[in-house]
Design goal:
The protein has 337 residues and is an alpha/beta fold. Helix content is 41%, strand content 19%. Bound molecules: manganese (II) ion.
């Protein structure tokens, strides 16, 4: 399941886990299915291995993913005075993406970075970074298998969540065979995946669909229809009886790419507290991670994001300008090729 070049680092982490008693597992802010699933799967396995485990997610576990999470108290205060033997940070391109400050004795506490983002900054003492992996959950599955750590149907349910959501049900461009090997390992446990299928296919809130309807009526096309852009203001959400989280639940980020001529999309939206957000998506090889990184965010070539404490119009202008340039440059390059 592991690419051969990553076997040494996986072995190193397996040894570290074996030698550690108190372990902290954390992931990024506003956890998605992959962050929630990977932390949850890792925590369950380590608990079953008899370790003393803490889990840290600053924004907590989203309600719709709660069914995969074990009954443990989460650490949610931003500064963590760590007395752990080991800190595992999952699905995070940078330490700051966790929202936590980890105060630790660097001699005692090793910090391990386990991630698949192309924008990863290699911030760990040990970096298990596999940008070809579909998800952090795929990487955790490979690691647990390699380390011979507990991997039963409860662990499998957690890992399946991120594997399915981050790979968009195994439909990502360039999906590697290891995603399916991880799925096979997960299904071998006999896990019942119906809670995940129910959540994905019938788990939307009314407000998710109202936001979706708003988005589908209000997006704009530019760059010969290659770029779709959409601005969702807090006032729009309020009118729809919707909240910030419904933008994520709406499915709009990927849906804007379902038109035959459209290869890139950007959705700009805002939260009540004045933070503004961008989500970028693409297909066919347009690198939206470059745009996200230029704007202080990060992610993957086909799916990235950023956020900033500025007015939504300011962020929208910059995002649409940079995306327009990225899309135009991409298609100009294709014409010349
Ligand atoms: Mn991920």
């Amino acid at each position: 399941m592991l690419p051969t070049d990553l076997l040494p680092v996986a072995t190193q982490i397996a040894t570290l886990i074996g030698n550690s008693q108190k372990i902290l597992v954390a992931a990024h802010l506003r956890p998605d299915g992959d962050a929630t699933g990977s932390v949850s799967g890792m925590v369950k396995s380590l608990l079953k291995a008899g370790k003393n485990v803490d889990a840290a997610l600053l924004d907590g576990v989203p309600e719709r993913f709660a069914f995969v999470f074990p009954q443990i108290e989460l650490i949610r205060q931003p500064v963590i005075d760590s007395d752990h033997d080991l800190i595992l940070i999952l699905d995070s391109g940078d330490e700051s993406r966790t929202g936590f400050t980890f105060n630790r004795d660097r001699e005692k506490t090793c910090l391990v970075n386990i991630d698949h983002h192309a924008s990863n900054t290699m911030f760990g003492d040990i970096n298990y970074v596999d940008t070809g992996a579909s998800s952090a959950c795929e990487m955790v599955a490979a690691l647990l298998h390699h380390a011979e750590l507990p991997f039963d149907s409860e662990v499998a349910l957690s890992l399946m969540l991120g594997l399915v959501t981050d790979s968009r049900s195994f439909q990502n461009e360039g999906l590697r065979h290891t995603a399916h090997l991880a799925a096979a390992k997960i299904l071998q446990t006999g896990v019942d995946t119906s809670p995940i299928l129910n959540m994905l296919n019938s788990g939307k809130a009314e407000a998710d669909l109202r936001v979706q309807g708003f988005g589908l009526s209000n997006f704009r096309l530019s760059c010969n229809n290659h770029l779709a852009s959409l601005v969702i203001r807090h006032s729009d959400l309020a009118r729809l009886n919707a909240a910030f989280g419904n933008v994520f639940g709406s499915g709009l980020f990927n849906q804007l790419l379902s038109m035959s001529d459209t290869y890139a999309s950007v959705v700009i939206f805002e939260r009540e507290d004045g933070m503004s957000f961008c989500e970028f998506r693409s297909r066919g090889g347009i690198d939206v991670k470059e745009v996200a990184v230029a704007m202080g965010g990060g992610g993957h070539v086909p799916a990235s994001g950023c956020s900033r404490a500025v007015k939504i119009d300011e962020l929208a202008e910059e995002a649409i300008k940079l995306m327009t340039r990225q899309v135009d440059t991409f298609f100009a390059g294709q014409k010349n090729a």
